[in-house]
Sequence to fold (139 residues):
Amino acid sequence: MASAAFEEIVEDFEFLEDWEDRYRHVIEQGKAMDPLEDALKVPATKVDGCASQVWLHPSIVNGVFRFDGESDAMIVRGLIAILRMLYNDLPIGDVLKVDAKAELGRLGLNDHLSAQRSNGLRAMIERIRDIAAREVAKG
Fold:
């Protein structure tokens, strides 16, 4: 259940066989994101469990989930960009249906991230899922 944007990154990764090139591509995705406004970098948007500084700012408009994010680490900023491709523009109920581990596994990220980066990625996914679950519970 991946978006068209995420399917594009999967195709890009299949084309890029070398992990150096894949890392570079992830970093480029992060650089292409608009920076998060400083006013949104507050404790409420900060993600705990990440070795680097990470902020995720969600918005739900008409039942559609979106988030913006920022990190002080280039690779993590790229991971945020990939998560945005995976989750943005989904109906809020569908956010909980995404099997992020399986989808990200298609990129091979599980095998090529350090333990700290993997923990941080899990923390970001948990935050996204928690936001969606709270919103769905509101009805």
Observations:
- Residues 115-138 form the longest helix (24 residues).
